[in-house]
Input
Amino acid sequence: MECPHVREMLPEYALGTLRAGDVPWVRDHLTACAGCRKEAAELMEGVEAAALLAGPAEPPPELEDRVVRAVVRAAGRRSQRRRAPVAGLLAAALLLALGWGAAMAGRAERMGDEAETARRAAAEAAREFGLFVEDLSGEGVREAALRSTSSSAAGGRAIVFDSDVSGASDWALVIVGGLPEDEGPYRAKLRGEGGSVRVGRLWPSAEGRLAAYALFGAIPGDQEDVVVLDGDGAVVLKGPLEAR
Amino acid sequence: MHAPRRAATEEAELMTPIPDNPGGPPRRITGMRSTDAHDGPLTPAAERDLVRRLISGDEEAVRILYGRFGGPVYGMGLRLLGSPEAAQELTQDTFVAAWRKAAQYDPARGRLSTWLMVIAHNLGVDRLRRESRRPLALVEDVERLAGETPEAEGQIVDRLVAGEMLAVLSSAERRLLGLAYYRGWTAREISLHDSIPLGTVKTRLRSALIKLRRAHGWKREL
Output
């Protein structure tokens, strides 16, 4: 993306009204371009100054303790390196569901006559998984609706569990459909201000669908969107991560 | 995309020009209180130290940050979201988000106050757009607020600040900034609604932010 195009988007970037899909591109550019970074910094100072236009307001006295408790509690969860039992259950369920689907898909490759059975099994696994994750909620669970960067009908969904805890069970799941087979292999990444995190190659999980799943010790940084890249490294699907 | 509809009375309210040098050159502003001026500006080293302590969840550091920025964040949230409850939630979310993002804070890219207020505003705009809530405050509400009886000396300074800063903007810039900052409208939505070329909207938003930044910056030099 060229500087003039980015400069045009910077006021909205600073104001927080830029289209979510454009934010990662601007962020990437700012990482590499000192001139645009300076412009962005100045516009953000303008946003800070605009806060003064709101005029004075005295927060209720009890808000300070509430805020402090929330931050200290969040930091404490991280330092204690513990995770709610549900997280482990979710990870196990994910592995079971996807492992089963992937295994069946692999078996289909080896045994053509059982391919249809395997696909049905994988689809069923994905369906059950879909029902399962519908119930997911709470802190640390974020979801992205993946949309095509072109006019194609391809799309998908990603779910990320980042508990802010340095453990062994943060995870990301990406399921997509409608991508042309001959433009793969496809790979999924999480992207944020601090860089990207590889989820991995997308493998067939059911007819017409591909899936990738990864476990992380702790997802580094504050990942803000999910992208799927084709065999040439071009982004074909993307979507912002949002709380469920 | 269709721009949100607004009532005619709101239109008139948004269009109300503010006297005192509208559209004129930026003026040197005196007596302004910074978002972080309660105990004087922090040095870059002090900001780094505060952020480092924030990352570790140091309660005292959180209280220092809240003491400096809690009021401005809450005030912005109140005007943006329109209810004390929502403003309190926004304030809490802002400080938790600041803790989550603290490792990414780079003093070379901007001051701590700027970083925190941008986080707060972005969270507020996200919420505003998600809930399609009509905000109660417009930029012009500052004038009304300025007429209210201040409760403390600091508030007298704050309302002077608001009035002085508005005066550096043209009426067109005030209107666009009001729609973008307080309503979370995109440039495209503003363009469609006001029948203004998209490029013009973006240019005016930029000039408004730069003028406010300049006015704010002058204050910091005092």
